[in-house]
Amino acid sequence: MASQTASRVLMLFFVVLLILLLILRSEARSLKQTRIDSRLLLNDLGYDKYKLEYFRHESIFDSGTRRVSPGGPDPNHN
């Protein structure tokens, strides 16, 4: 009986210790800066500078050619 109680207490201790370690080791940062540089943020997230420039250029100069109009109202609707 005593060994079961001791093993439960030991298991509870390890669970609490594991939770505390996970909380203390988290790498969350508060963003207290008033201005965030979006290019630095995207670079930190792993986006390539040249691909972003390509897509920005495509969105500015080639925006009208990729747009398609919808097929219109569905004749079977209503």
UniProtKB/TrEMBL annotation:
The keyword Glycoprotein applies. It is found in: Secreted, Extracellular space. InterPro entries: CLAVATA3-CLE (IPR039617). Residues 1-28 form the signal peptide. Its main location: secreted. The keyword Signal applies. Coiled coil: none annotated. One of its GO terms (cellular component) is extracellular region. Keywords: Differentiation, Glycoprotein, Hydroxylation, Secreted, Signal. GO terms for biological process: cell differentiation. PANTHER family: CLAVATA3/ESR (CLE)-RELATED PROTEIN 7 (PTHR36016), PROTEIN, PUTATIVE-RELATED (PTHR36016:SF9). Belongs to the CLV3/ESR signal peptide family. This is Uncharacterized protein. It comes from Citrus unshiu.
